[in-house]
Amino acid sequence: MSAALTLAEAKSVIAAVQAHGRAERMEPLSVLVLDAGGHPLAFERGDGTPPGHFTIAQAKAHGCLMIHAGGTAIEERAAAGDPFMQAAPTLFGGRFVACRGGMLILRDGTVVGALGVTGDTSENDLAAGLAGLDACGFGAEG
Amino acid sequence: MSAALTLAEAKSVIAAVQAHGRAERMEPLSVLVLDAGGHPLAFERGDGTPPGHFTIAQAKAHGCLMIHAGGTAIEERAAAGDPFMQAAPTLFGGRFVACRGGMLILRDGTVVGALGVTGDTSENDLAAGLAGLDACGFGAEG
Amino acid sequence: MSAALTLAEAKSVIAAVQAHGRAERMEPLSVLVLDAGGHPLAFERGDGTPPGHFTIAQAKAHGCLMIHAGGTAIEERAAAGDPFMQAAPTLFGGRFVACRGGMLILRDGTVVGALGVTGDTSENDLAAGLAGLDACGFGAEG
Amino acid sequence: MSAALTLAEAKSVIAAVQAHGRAERMEPLSVLVLDAGGHPLAFERGDGTPPGHFTIAQAKAHGCLMIHAGGTAIEERAAAGDPFMQAAPTLFGGRFVACRGGMLILRDGTVVGALGVTGDTSENDLAAGLAGLDACGFGAEG
Question: What ipTM did this prediction achieve?
Answer without folding.
Answer: 0.95
